[in-house]
Amino acid sequence: MAAQTASRDVVTWERKAAGIVHVTMARPPANALGPLILDGVHAALDDAEAAGDVKVLVLSSALDGFFAAGADIKHLSKIDAESFTAYGDQMRAVNDRLAAAPFLSIAAVDGLALGGGLELAMACTMRVSGSRGAYGLPEVKIGLIPGAGGTQRLPRLVGRGRALDIMLTARQVPASEAFAIGLVDRLTEGDAVKEALALAEGLAEASLPAQLAVVRTVDAAFDLPLDKGALYEVAQEQSLFEDGEAAEGITAFIAKRHPRFA
Questions:
Q1: What's the predicted TM-score (pTM) here?
Q2: Which residue of the set 48, 71, 107, 163 is catalytic?
Q3: What superfamily would CATH give domain 6-203?
Q4: Cβ 7 vs Cβ 36: under 8 Å
Q5: Candidate list 139, 195, 233, 245, residue with the active-site label
Q6: To 10 degrees, the CA torsion angle through 147, 29, 130, 90?
Q7: SUPFAM superfamilies, alphabetically (predicted)?
């Protein structure tokens, strides 16, 4: 899809296969997450949601060596407290919307994903890393904390101790370590975008309502006591059987054919 506004000059998107959209960020030199790139990601999400048939969104960078370097520090240096609040709200809104999207999402990273850039990647359902991927939340170096979901999402992925180590030291985590501790889900020596798109094709073959229910129930395991989480799991399973795509899945299994999910 062609860029139409300034924000769409730095964020573009295109259909790659049935049910898959590829969103690309390109704001040199490092994809700093200023208002333009955030508006662009919002626009991409608007389009994907309006289409109604997107099952997987892949988010990547067109810049060599960078996924996204984080908040726009130059922008921060020029704003007052009220504008800082608004900017933070804009960053959080993008991440929260991505995390709650009616489709799955994959961040394809083969460069630096720092600060807000890592927070953006963590808001995705999954993360695929190339060997050059490097991850960090260095906000303490400028007297701040990760304020766009980083302090909440990172411990859920890697545990409290590792999350504290990463945030307190402000260090960069190399791709191999990120994979070992669960910060990224797939590690490839090849092209991270190609790997992410291949993963997206596989995911798009399954039932999206069931996949989204998996995400919700796994998230509930962190939010609810075990007994309440188990009850939530039962409710999700029952809903899928009554109103989801279970009937087609079961029928296809019996008939020994591929299911025709929406």
A1: 0.93
A2: 71
A3: 2-enoyl-CoA Hydratase; Chain A, domain 1 (3.90.226.10)
A4: yes
A5: 139
A6: 30
A7: ClpP/crotonase
Kindly indicate whether the domain formed by 208-255 is annotated with CATH number 1.10.12. Answer: yes
Name the segment(s) of the chain with CATH classification 1.10.12: 208-255
Please, are residues 134 and 112 in contact by the beta-carbon 8 Å criterion? yes
Among this protein's residues, is 119 annotated catalytic? yes
Q: Are 116 and 91 in contact (CB under 8 A)?
A: yes
Extract the tokens encoding 84.
């800082």
Sequence ranges of the chain with CATH classification 3.90.226.10: 6-203
Distances (CA, A) of 234 to 54, 100, 102, 213, 228: 27, 21, 21, 11, 10
Q: Name the nearest CA neighbour of 23 among 80, 51, 62, 68.
A: 62
From the candidates 40, 116, 133, 244, give the one annotated as an active-site residue: 116
pLDDT for res 1: 41
The structure tokens listed for 139 are 């906000």
3-state class of 22 per DSSP? strand
* pLDDT, mean of residues 157-169: 98
